């Protein structure tokens, strides 16, 4: 069973806020000492006063500005690796209410090349991270690791530091360059022609042969978007030492 942190944070903020408000407008005005003092009231008020501003601040930051995520797999290698902790810019694709995820303000939309966090369509409680390749209305052809978008082939060349153990290729989506892994250059899974419907996006993992993306789970609806991954703030895998060189890296 997954834990809905947004729901928990929202409920705690509401409860503490209600207690502070009741104390200010009702309890503090009571003149009868017996009415004021029941077991635990003062403790409840003090805790609420202490935690409410902190909870409200965290809720606003997490819901509308930045939210931290941990990369749980290698599907976005070499850009992101298992153990990376990243910041996701929540306001890139619209401001949404916590819990309900209802968009209240339009601030922008995904662009080709963005690394995007979204809620997994079959189970919205799970967050996925992939790279945006196709926008609404695009026709995407995926053929032996080569991408063609609306009839234009996406530039792809072998990276200078490519080895057999690290088969890197440099891909350019619009003006955004990034590295991908191609393990089987002469063969790729799920080749085909994909037409992106309105209100949806076609996404791929940078580890092209080892990613469960739009080739398998279909197009990502706009209402499932969470935000744009922008920077790595920590890398830690288990009990090993942090990889300091990854901290602060901008996500390309």
Give me the CATH fold name of the largest domain: Umud Fragment, subunit A
Beta-strand proportion = 25-35%
SSE class = alpha+beta
Evaluate the radius of gyration: 23 Å
Percent helix range: 10-25%
Oligomer: single chain
Order of helices and strands: HHHEEEEEEEEEEEEEEHEE
- The general outline is elongated
In spatial order, strands of the major sheet run 1-2-16-5-6-14-15
The overall pLDDT, averaged over residues, is 92
Biggest sheet layout? 7 strands, antiparallel
Tell me how many strands there are: 16
Structure notes:
The protein is 21% helix and 31% strand. With 252 residues, it is α+β, with helices and mostly antiparallel strands. The protein folds into 2 domains: 5-64, no CATH class; 71-246, Umud Fragment, subunit A (Ribbon). The strands form 4 sheets. The chain has a 7-stranded antiparallel beta sheet with strand order 1-2-16-5-6-14-15.
